[in-house]
Specification:
Blueprint (H helix, E strand, L loop, with lengths): L11 H14 L12 H8 L3 H13 L3 E4 L3 E4 L14 H7 L7 H12 L5 E2 L20 H6 L4 E2 L2 E2 H15 L8 E4 L1 H12 L6 E6 L8 H4 L3 E8 L2 E2 L1 H11 L1 E6 L13 H14 L3 E4 L3 H4 L9 H4 L4 E6 L1 H4 L6 E4 L2 H15 L4 H11 L3 H27 L14 E5 L11 H5 L2 E2 L1 E2 L9 E5 L5 H23 L1
Parallel strand pairs: 3-15, 7-8, 7-10, 10-11, 11-12
Antiparallel strand pairs: 1-2, 4-5, 6-13, 8-9, 12-13, 14-17, 16-17
Helix pairs in contact: 1-3, 2-3, 17-19
Bound molecules: pyridoxal-5'-phosphate.
Length: 482
């Protein structure tokens, strides 16, 4: 029903904005659904057409709707700019299902992974395979001695581990953080979650790299944030685009993954890092620097210093052990101003009484073991070999057909295919061919591009990946001819 309730003190145009947003949230208006014409809406609401135009302008600025010349106004089908909720109340998440369930492609990928069939090639899971996790022994402690370590823990985590992270960050990057500026989290994911819940409010605009791993996370939408795409070139995010986004949408925070970006594998250049921290400091936009691959980067002298090193006040730095010790370790850390750390640590304390002492003690012990550096070195070597095998296989089996940039590190190769897929269902062809890859749409891009994760691929697997892609390209071009 296109009717205003009439019991609001808001200006009429904002009541129209609210009504349309509510219809989208309730599912009454679906992505890509066309809105009635302006004249008709004005009649429904009993207002001037200019009031409707003002409301639609506001919704367009929020990227909730898209106005297309000649074809009217439609509900934005993408997550970019989506306004996804009014409340940050926990109960709301639980009862209203604030978290969006995985898209069918991801659900199907999960089913195929779990089936663990010999036939299926997993080039999608961004997790460290078991054989590449550390082979070092963990200390054998009695239950009581674990619990006793709690004396060394406060809301921000186990102090010896915070000191270890402090030393590690200093040795690797010359980063000078004090232990009270370091917060141990349950992986990078929890740090991101707490930032979106505690430092931002529903309706706030945030800019994230496009493409981005963040796009695949429902936590931004669940916090009711409007996410805007920050385009990148080979050097990283484009600064003029950030300025535009800031002026158009009052961006409140920028999220970047500057080293071995997921999914592109790109490393933001030093020049771009400097420009980014400078412009963000000037516009007073805090930066979240998500850096789960940092330890691998530390072995590579070509990797520029973290943003945190360039501007210690305005950057929240996130690290993680997931990519070097296995993601079920669930140890990450956030480095930021003491006041922010205290606020987030208290929020976590309210949510789940803090972090378990067990992984913190074990991680601290392993990080201080002599074999740890050796483990990193081996990991670095194996990943480089696997990356080179994949690239060699693609170049040999599909010469000059694919476009990709050789990543300096990380887990992923971002591959542009020489075909056009008209809808996201077209990507099901990979699943039908028993090849699990991550399609570009999961990272917020429309092009026919896939993320191929080489971390798990042996040499033969890489050749098979190349052969399957070749087969898919043949099938696709045959379909076009039909
Ligand atoms: C860029 C990026 N950030 C954060 C995460 C989440 O890491 P964690 O396992 O530490 O929560 C991932 C995991 O793949 C990632 O790729």
């Amino acid at each position: 029903m296109w009717k205003l309730t009439g019991n609001s003190n808001l200006p009429i145009y904002l009541q129209i904005v609210d009504l349309i947003e509510t219809k989208i949230m309730n599912g009454e208006l679906l992505p890509e659904e066309k809105l009635p014409p302006e004249r008709q809406l004005a009649e429904f609401f009993g207002v001037n057409r200019s009031t409707v135009v003002r409301a639609l302008d506001e919704l367009t600025a929020r990227a909730v709707i898209v106005r297309k010349q000649g074809s009217g106004t439609i509900v934005n089908a993408e997550k970019w700019g989506l306004f996804a909720g009014q409340s940050t109340n926990w109960r709301h998440y639980l009862t209203q299902g604030g978290f969006t369930p995985a898209v069918p492609y991801i659900r199907q990928t999960g089913v195929m992974e779990r089936a663990d069939s010999e036939q299926v090639i997993d080039a999608s899971t961004g997790e460290l395979p078991l054989e590449m996790t550390p082979k070092m022994e963990t200390p054998s402690l009695s239950w009581q001695s674990f619990i006793a370590e709690e004396q060394l823990e406060d809301e921000a985590g186990y102090r010896p581990l915070r000191e270890t992270v402090q030393k590690q960050m200093h040795d690797a990057y010359g980063l000078n953080a004090r232990p009270e500026q370091i917060f141990i989290t349950s992986g990078a994911q929890q740090a991101l979650f707490l930032i979106t819940q505690c430092l931002l409010k529903p309706g706030d605009a945030v800019a994230i790299e496009s493409p981005s791993y963040f796009y695949s996370l429902s936590l931004f939408q669940s916090a009711g944030l409007r996410i805007f795409a920050l385009p990148m070139d080979d050097d990283g995010v484009i600064i003029s685009e950030l300025r535009d986004l800031y002026h158009k949408h009052r961006v409140k925070m920028v999220f970047v993954n500057p080293t071995f970006q997921n999914p592109t594998g790109l490393v933001m250049s030093l020049k771009r890092r400097k420009e980014l921290v400078k412009v963000c400091a000037h516009l007073q936009i805090p930066i979240v620097e998500d850096d789960p691959f940092s330890e691998l980067a530390a072995l590579d002298s070509e990797i520029p210093v973290p943003l945190k090193q360039l501007d210690s006040d305005n950057v929240l730095y996130i690290g993680s052990l997931s990519k070097i010790m296995g993601s079920t370790t669930r140890i990450g850390w956030l480095i930021g101003p003491t006041a922010v750390i205290e606020r987030l640590a208290l929020a976590r304390q309210e949510m789940d009484f803090g972090l378990s002492i067990f992984p913190q003690v074990l991680a601290n012990s392993v990080l201080n073991t002599a074999g740890y550096k050796e483990h990193l070195k081996q990991l670095h070597q194996v990943l480089a070999v696997r990356r080179d095998h994949l690239i060699a296989a693609l170049e040999e089996i599909l010469p000059n057909e694919l476009a990709f940039i050789r990543p300096k590190g990380g887990f992923h190769l971002w591959v542009k295919l020489p075909v056009e897929f008209r809808s996201i269902c077209d990507f099901d062809i990979f699943l039908a061919n028993d090849l699990l890859v991550m399609p570009g749409f999961l990272f917020g891009v429309k092009e026919t591009v896939i993320r191929v994760t080489y971390a798990r691929l042996e040499k033969d697997d890489s050749r098979q990946v190349a052969n399957i892609i070749k087969q898919i390209l043949i099938e696709k071009s045959a379909m076009k001819l039909d």
